[in-house]
């Protein structure tokens, strides 16, 4: 298990799942140097004693870093919490995030960030499991998770159409990073985004062209 080294470089414990890719996309976009500790979940390394000391729930990603205020060592898990922490510490020009001092737009950021955490991630994740990994095909479970995922993409389509192609304040935001890692993986769950949700498709193509996004997405891959 990797630990924070003497030069205070961020350590990312992860693997190339959509949640893990959220972290690498943002770090590459912000040009943040980091050590990478690959946690092979196919070998159940996330259940090791050393990893569970970082996250008792045994889920990636996890970062080890230092608090920007007092430089104390911190451990952050949950991908969207990692996005918030990393933006607060490394996006010093506030090009990709807002703080509470910015007023209502901060709450727009928070609601769309949490939308990706509470709606996009679990619905698409369940669809991926039932379509690709479940030991027994369950048509009801597949259809149910598909319906929930399609509802999420319907909401994204509506928001992007109303907000000139962005989730927050008509500009790039950490909420887009959170969405990107899952939308780019949509073909794995057999979603025809290009034809069914054209605004989401255009959004994906736009994000693909932003510095660090594809590099961060392809930094690691699971399978």
Automatic annotation (TrEMBL):
Sorted UniProt keywords: Transferase
Record InterPro entries: Glutathione-S-Trfase_C_sf, Glutathione_S-Trfase, Glutathione_S-Trfase_N, GST_C, Thioredoxin-like_sf
CDD domains, sorted: GST_N_Ure2p_like (cd03048)
Molecular-function annotations in GO: transferase activity
One Pfam assignment: GST_N_2
Occurrences of domain GST N-terminal (ranges): 7-94
PANTHER family with a match to the protein in the record: GLUTATHIONE S-TRANSFERASE GSTA, GLUTATHIONE S-TRANSFERASE-RELATED
Entry similarity comment: Belongs to the GST superfamily.
Protein known as: Glutathione S-transferase
Organism whose genome encodes this protein: Cyberlindnera jadinii (strain ATCC 18201 / CBS 1600 / BCRC 20928 / JCM 3617 / NBRC 0987 / NRRL Y-1542)
